[in-house]
Each structure stands twice: as structure tokens, then as C-alpha cells.
């Protein structure tokens, strides 16, 4: 029997507001424990919450970017649970009336474009952070009250790859709108997954498990792959899948049981009595709509139509807002769009990926890259030398023209000088000359390579090819 997975995601994104959701404490990350707290975010008796308007603005902006319906009449609710990191023993969130609903994101799968539904986006407060030291556990409440949006998808994904693609696309959209910095390493973007399996062709859902503690795209994909295989193997053995919460153990490469899964009624939701209902009007929503940036899909379409980029190039470049800005700056300076794209897709992304860096971390500018490409187009340096100069630019941030000048990398275009190198190489490789005479054309490529090596990559490649053929024919 063949099985298929049914996957839904629950994603928490911390909003980039300067202050917390119900008080004026700063949301700044990384300061000493329990220094960004007040009676409100510590849940002290008598302290009353006041909703931060910027939180609502940011959540509406996220909803619009994710094609959601914005609900004009909503209210906050209490979600009751007893964990050490919840100072009030409840969380202020939204339950029956989420701020945004019925949205979607489209991803490009091997089978074509697939629409993943977004069930709801609601605003809520974050909890504190538990720190475990040996047998002791400590609580840092700096994060308590930091504003979150929770984005809940429909169970529309059928593979770990689709889940990863959705999560990557979502992160890109949130970064474009600047509603969250999405720093997964700091916990400002967190993802839980609900996953079940069922026989292919079935319309009934299987028993789902929730997976937590996935702090990267790779971890999400690996955790889902493991859990899907675990559930399928269990069913084949006649075992019963139970609804439970599991965590991903990166070191072991497996999911581990944490606790039985709670149902909604376990939290005893009821309207938050200390807060008024939230009522939006069309003007509020339209004012936010006017601030919406060009989103990845719109930018991708424009790059294809305006710059003639292949769809693949446009898709990669627009994944990152900063990378797209770098590309456009280079084009606006005067660079050829396809040539700029080739360098970004090749050398730029290669070195960024190798060193696990972002385009914002580089020392050189878009203007420097255009200068480097111009040196190649003018014949000042070869493409091979340009790649070496690029590495130097990356390391030092120096102007490419200065690097070429300081290192004496100007391309040799003197025909007499190149012919001299060619003849020297031919004299040193008589077997290659014989091979050429015997019809072995590969000998030409070998000789060309040796000439480029002898010139330290500085000889003009077109001239080298021409002169090698000329001199071989003479012999």
C-alpha cells in the first residue's frame, strides 16, 4: 500500500516593533536576563495591558501580503496554561476571531504552481524563555510580551519539500514587508509542523503528531522525512498512531515524544476581560495597503518582462529582498541585466553560500561589480582573471581597477607576445603537435590551456585560440 503525507504548519514570527505588545518595554534582543520587564509583561497583580497599535498595523500588512481577508471586528482572548515561562498562567492571544484569514501562498513544485491555503493569522504575546543549566532551570522574561503573529496553514502540503518551499517563500514575503526580521537563530521565526499519513487516494485524515524545535529549513525537511517514515512503518506493523507532541532531536536525527497533544478545549479560551474589542475600518486597512512594497512574485514577473531574465534567474534573485536590491542597483548604474544576473547566480552566490553569508555582509558594492564586468568587456582582463579579482574584492572590498593595477593583471593583447608564448609551449610539447597532425583535435585544447597557464591567465583567450591554430598548421 502506498501512503501520502498530510502536512500543515504553524509559524510564529516576532514582529519588528520597538516595544512589546501590551507595554512600553523594549523588544531588543540579547540583553541581560530580566532587564526588559515591567509589571505588565511580568503579569503582576493590578497591571493592565494596553494594545500596541503598531502590532495591529504589522499584522494587517502581513495579512495583505499573504492574500488574506482582514477581519474588521476581532477581540483578544485568554489561553490558559500553566508553564513556568508564562508569568500570568495564561497567554493573551486570539481564538475565534483572528485578525486575518483565508489567505494563501503559491509555490512552484515539480508538478507546477500549487496554492497553499493560510487558515488564519492572529496576534498574540510571546512567553519567556526557559534556560536549563544542569539540574536547574532558570527563566528569562525579556521575551515575555514580545509581539507575535501566528500563521496557521491548511493541511495542503504533501511532502517535506513542499513544506520547506512554503516556509522559505513565507520568510521571503515577511522580510520584504519588514514586519519581522525572521532571524531563526534568535528565535524570531519559529515553525511547528502537524503531520499525518494516509493511504494514497484516501480523503480521510490520519492521526496527526505535532513536531517542535525545528530551527532551520533543513531541520524542518529532515524532521518531516523522519516522522513520515516513522508513522508509515508503525502502521505497517499494525501499531496505532497517537496524537502527541514530539520534538526534533538534531543530534539523533529523530523525533522524540514530549507530551500528549492538547485539544483547544484544554486551554479554556474566553474573551480577555481587560481589553476592549478591536474594530477596524476601511481607511485603516487602505492606509496600510498603500505602504505595501513590491513583493517577490511581482518583482520576479517584472524582472522577466523588463530585463529579459530567465524565470529561474528571476526566481533566485527575488528570493532575497537585499539581493534583488543589489541586482537593481547594478542594472541602474548601467550593467547589462543578464550579465549581472550571471555573476550573481555564479560567483556571488557561490561564495556567499560557501561562507554562509548574506549579500548585506559583503565589502564590495554593486558599482564595484559593474566595474569588474566592464574590465572584462573592454578586454582589460580575461574572465578567468576577473574571477580571481572578484575573490580579492570579496576579501578586501577594494576597487577592482586598483586590484588589477596593483597586481599587474592587465590582459595581454599584444599578438607578438602571445605568439612567442605559443611557440614556446609547442616546442615543449612535441607530442601534442604530432597528435594534432594525426587528427587528434583535443591537442588544440591542451595547448591552449598550457598557453593560458604560461601567461598566468593574462593572455587574451580569443587571440590564444587563433594563434595556436595558426602555429600548429605551420608545423
UniProtKB/TrEMBL annotation:
Gene3D superfamilies: 1.10.10.410, GatB domain, N-terminal subdomain. GO terms for molecular function: asparaginyl-tRNA synthase (glutamine-hydrolyzing) activity; ATP binding; glutaminyl-tRNA synthase (glutamine-hydrolyzing) activity; transferase activity. HAMAP family: GatB. GO terms for biological process: glutaminyl-tRNAGln biosynthesis via transamidation; translation. This is Aspartyl/glutamyl-tRNA(Asn/Gln) amidotransferase subunit B. Its EC number is 6.3.5.-. It catalyses: L-glutamyl-tRNA(Gln) + L-glutamine + ATP + H2O = L-glutaminyl-tRNA(Gln) + L-glutamate + ADP + phosphate + H(+); L-aspartyl-tRNA(Asn) + L-glutamine + ATP + H2O = L-asparaginyl-tRNA(Asn) + L-glutamate + ADP + phosphate + 2 H(+). Residues 325-472 form the Asn/Gln amidotransferase domain. Pfam families: GatB_N, GatB_Yqey.
Amino acid at each position: 500500500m502506498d501512503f501520502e503525507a498530510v502536512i500543515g504548519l504553524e509559524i510564529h514570527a516576532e514582529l519588528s516593533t520597538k516595544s512589546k505588545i501590551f507595554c512600553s518595554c523594549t523588544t531588543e534582543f540579547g540583553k541581560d536576563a530580566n532587564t526588559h520587564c515591567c509589571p505588565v509583561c511580568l503579569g503582576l497583580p493590578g497591571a493592565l495591558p494596553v494594545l500596541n497599535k503598531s502590532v495591529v498595523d504589522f499584522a494587517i500588512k502581513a495579512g495583505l501580503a499573504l492574500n488574506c481577508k482582514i477581519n474588521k471586528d476581532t477581540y483578544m482572548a485568554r489561553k490558559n496554561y500553566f508553564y513556568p515561562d508564562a508569568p500570568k498562567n495564561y497567554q493573551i492571544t486570539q481564538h475565534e476571531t483572528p485578525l486575518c484569514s483565508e489567505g494563501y501562498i503559491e509555490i512552484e513544485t515539480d508538478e507546477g504552481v500549487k496554492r497553499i491555503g493560510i487558515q488564519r493569522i492572529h496576534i498574540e504575546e510571546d512567553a519567556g524563555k526557559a534556560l536549563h543549566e544542569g539540574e536547574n532551570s532558570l527563566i528569562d522574561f525579556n521575551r515575555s510580551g514580545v509581539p507575535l503573529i501566528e500563521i496557521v496553514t491548511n493541511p495542503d502540503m504533501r511532502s517535506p519539500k513542499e513544506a520547506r518551499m512554503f516556509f522559505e517563500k513565507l520568510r521571503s514575503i515577511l522580510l520584504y514587508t519588514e514586519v519581522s526580521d525572521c532571524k531563526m537563530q534568535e528565535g524570531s521565526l519559529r515553525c511547528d509542523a502537524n503531520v499525518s499519513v494516509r493511504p494514497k487516494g484516501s480523503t480521510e485524515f490520519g492521526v496527526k503528531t505535532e513536531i517542535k524545535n525545528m530551527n532551520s529549513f533543513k531541520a524542518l525537511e529532515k524532521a518531516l522525512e523522519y516522522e513520515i517514515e516513522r508513522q508509515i512503518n508503525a502502521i505497517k506493523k499494525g501499531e496505532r498512531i497517537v496524537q502527541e507532541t514530539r520534538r526534533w532531536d538534531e543530534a539523533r536525527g529523530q523525533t522524540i515524544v514530549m507530551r500528549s497533544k492538547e485539544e483547544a478545549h484544554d486551554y479554556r479560551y474566553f474573551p480577555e476581560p481587560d481589553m476592549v474589542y478591536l474594530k477596524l475600518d476601511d481607511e485603516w486597512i487602505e492606509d496600510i495597503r498603500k505602504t505595501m512594497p513590491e513583493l517577490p512574485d511581482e518583482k520576479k514577473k517584472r524582472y522577466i518582462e523588463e530585463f529579459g531574465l530567465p524565470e529561474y534567474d528571476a526566481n533566485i534573485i527575488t528570493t532575497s529582498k537585499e539581493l534583488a536590491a543589489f541586482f537593481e542597483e547594478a542594472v541602474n548604474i548601467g550593467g547589462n541585466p543578464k550579465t549581472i544576473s550571471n555573476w550573481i547566480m555564479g560567483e556571488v552566490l557561490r561564495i556567499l553560500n560557501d561562507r554562509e553569508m548574506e549579500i548585506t555582509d559583503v565589502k564590495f558594492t554593486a558599482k564595484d561589480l559593474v566595474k569588474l564586468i566592464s574590465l572584462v568587456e573592454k578586454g582589460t582582463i580575461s574572465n578567468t582573471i576577473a574571477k580571481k579579482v572578484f575573490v580579492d574584492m570579496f576579501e578586501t572590498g577594494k576597487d577592482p581597477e586598483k586590484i588589477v593595477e596593483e597586481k599587474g593583471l592587465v590582459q595581454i593583447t599584444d599578438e607578438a607576445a602571445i605568439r612567442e608564448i605559443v611557440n614556446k609551449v609547442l616546442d615543449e610539447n612535441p607530442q601534442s603537435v604530432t597528435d594534432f597532425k594525426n587528427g587528434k583535435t583535443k591537442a588544440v585544447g591542451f595547448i591552449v590551456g598550457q598557453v593560458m597557464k604560461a601567461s598566468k591567465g593574462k593572455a587574451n583567450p580569443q587571440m590564444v585560440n587563433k594563434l595556436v591554430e595558426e602555429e600548429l598548421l605551420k608545423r
